[in-house]
Amino acid sequence: MASATRYDISFEEVATALVRYLDIHEGLWTIGTSFQFNGKNIGTDKKEMRPGFIGVLNQMNLVRVTEAIPGLTVDAALVNPPVFATTAKGRKTN
């Protein structure tokens, strides 16, 4: 079997993985990003220069929100429910 060379991952899958990694069990969480943009003259030589811009993705983050954004938001209680241990008598503990 050939090994994979690419995995396409949805924003919801990224949010789910981060919620699980950070051990979050409640709330609505969405993916956020921080960009930086700079203007610059761009061209192959001085006669071909044109105004342009360069955009850089500075960071991604996980943001708690009050309303779900379809395709970006996950409910931590559904994707990473808390696990309760049981005592010898069958009682749940946190």
Automatic annotation (TrEMBL):
- Lineage, broadest ranks: Bacteria, Pseudomonadati, Pseudomonadota, Gammaproteobacteria, Lysobacterales
Lineage top rank: taxon: Bacteria
Native organism is: Dyella japonica
Name the UniProt record assigns to this protein? Uncharacterized protein
